Amino acid sequence: MYMRRICVFCGSSMGNKEEYKSAAKKVGEYLLDKKIELIYGGANVGLMKIIADEVLNGGVKVIGIMPHMLIEKEVEHKGITELISVETMSERKDLMASMSDGFIAMPGGFGTLDELSEILTHNQLRISDKPIGLLNTEGYYDNLLKFLDDCVAFGFVRVEHRNNIIVSSNIDELVTKMNEYKPIVTKKWIQDIKIESNGG
Ligand code: AMP
Fold first, then answer.
1. How far is residue 67 from each of residues 31, 72, 75, 76, measured CA to CA in Å?
2. What local confidence, expressed as pLDDT, does residue 46 receive?
């Protein structure tokens, strides 16, 4: 499926390497070139701002979703096409999930990891089958990917769920793979963990 709306999770900070900023700019340019609408946290700070500005300047739609509490702190981007205000961080993630055709996580902190983790859990439970991409700029996510391999090795994550994460350091390649994505079906998963927990 060709994604028309992508949600980007990324830092409310800029990070301390120029490469993070240039990667965010490239993501914006890519979305613009392909006329893909951007859904994001709605902020006017960090890598989020760089992507939003790039897409907006080229005239493609940008939708931000933000809880009141952050709007009150005046971190919202005042120039975006639409700012949807919600009550809670959870509501924000729900709306991001339902409005987008796919998700990209770029370098970021706890907020980004929270959003990524939630959407990976949706994928595992098959609440959503939308593609999830990790833009691994400058190897930012190498250690997380290694940790996820450990989660598989130690029996806490199914290899199919781990392998559903699409990884690339190049935005063009990442979106191409995301458009081709088909989830690996693990019908027996819930049944298997029930058996395992009951000594079977
Ligand atoms: P972080 O990765 O901790 O910088 O958080 C960035 C992610 O969490 C974004 O994708 C936002 O949706 C959300 N977020 C966290 N802090 C903020 C903030 N100050 N303004 C807007 N969004 C934020």
1. 25, 9, 11, 10
2. 97
